[in-house]
């Protein structure tokens, strides 16, 4: 039912450049070859409009903010599970430092600051699409493992277990509760 892990919030920050340096198309390639249902992407920056629309048409959970003020951007970082850097190469990028200062992990190609922070707990680097898919998958593993461990403990199962227990104690239970509070 409704008790399932929430989608991992993946933030992408940066305006696409005319030369394609931010590699916005990588998101579409990822969507084509990967189940992205465990993720919600938040893209901040201009030049992503066509990619976002296409990704939405492919069923990807994604939102786009062309421009945001500093406090909104800070809030987006603080409410995200990771920053995904898609660009080919550049000196920084600055969003990597912003993400780390907000305490969220970064998934980035191995260049610039990503090479400087060689701690996989801070920055996980990827060189190709399979490595990126693995890094994203690893974000969901703890949640899925916890969910699998307790998924049998839902309201319906709770009620059935208690109905059986009370039936043993009081005999055939004429009243069937409809919520856990009815007992």
Mean pLDDT: 83
Strand residue percentage? 5-15%
Contiguous helical run count = 7
List unreliable stretches of 5+ residues: none
Strand arrangement in the largest pleated sheet: 3-2-1-4-5-6
Following the backbone from N to C, one meets helices and strands in this order, namely EHEHEHEHEHEHH
Distance between the termini: 21 Å
Short description:
This protein has 7 helices and 6 strands; from the N terminus they run βαβαβαβαβαβαα.
Report on the architecture of this protein.
- The chain has 183 residues and is of the alpha/beta class.
- It is built from seven helices and six strands, in the order E-H-E-H-E-H-E-H-E-H-E-H-H.
- It has helices at 25-33, 49-57, 70-78, 94-101, 112-116, 129-150, 155-170, and strands spanning 8-13, 39-44, 62-65, 82-84, 106-109, 123-126.
- Strands 3-2-1-4-5-6 form a six-stranded parallel beta sheet, with helices on both faces.
- The model has no long low-confidence stretch (mean pLDDT 83).
Helix and strand layout, with pairings?
Blueprint: E1 8-13, H1 25-33, E2 39-44, H2 49-57, E3 62-65, H3 70-78, E4 82-84, H4 94-101, E5 106-109, H5 112-116, E6 123-126, H6 129-150, H7 155-170
Parallel strand pairs: 1-2, 1-4, 2-3, 4-5, 5-6
